[in-house]
User: Fold these one by one.
Assistant:
Number 1:
Amino acid sequence: MNRCEACVYYIYDDQEECYSCMVNLDEDEMYRFLTKTQQSCPYFRLNDEYGLVRHQN
């Protein structure tokens, strides 16, 4: 599993029948992503379904 698959923004699109990132990158961010000059995604948020429950305890 890569890091994108664990992100909250990585959503299944029923129309396209595939997963895709729902973050809208601007032109500079898209360039860094495509050229792999950025080490990690600045928008990554762990898709932790139990995080809210742990926080409430």
Number 2:
Amino acid sequence: MKVRLFFLKTSWLVIIAGGLLGGCYYDNEETLYGITTCDSTFVSTFNTDVLPMLEKYCNGCHAGSSPSGDISLDTYSNVSNYVSNGSLMGSIRHDPGFKAMPEGRGKLSACDIKKIQSWIDAGAANN
């Protein structure tokens, strides 16, 4: 009886542990299936959409007192200079003639690039 009870307890632990561990999978739909959930009908804003992306992907190198390449992307006025000369989009799209950014990493997602382009197409306002 003790052996059977031990076996039942052990079996339940294995089932529960397998369910907990096997049920967690962290990958995004865009990578797995090519599905994007990017809403291209809205117009991005600098403070809500663009600046958080720059902080996440760019400002580790391009902010502060000595930004990499003397390119600072931590304020609207700085960013607007690179929007005006085309280098912001050229770099993040990895266009020929521009240094591909983020350096040493892949491009931003198509959705992130579309959000930045949406903001630029709407006039690149400080909003």
Number 3:
Amino acid sequence: MSTNSLPKDPHILLSYINTQLRDNYDDLVEFCVSNSVDINDIVGRMRAIDCVYDENTNQFK
């Protein structure tokens, strides 16, 4: 999966990533490596809607 195949809308992306993290991945790095996406792009897109990754809960808040 490339960044191009991720949802474009940041709020839908937030929901998608959090669901994936909850159901399939131990952390954000594993998600990004498994899906061949740039972690900095994901973090930047989430930061744009005032969400940051919380390692303790393995989700963006």
Number 4:
Amino acid sequence: MKDITKKYTNGEVTIVWKPDLCIHSTLCFKGLPTVFDPKKRPWVTPEGSATDKIIEQVKKCPSGALSYYLNRDAAEEK
């Protein structure tokens, strides 16, 4: 089994999605449909909302399939 990780960014925040962990709780797209839309490809469009709203929603993911990091923090680590 491949360990797939997808990343989506709006320039400020990067959403990390690990589909193997996803339990399809639907909290993401019910909570923030302008960013998470399983009918679209890509299904994550971080341009659809403000960074703080994205972070707030990602934190509600019960499975840990969705996580995030701030791009400025990642840049500082390099």
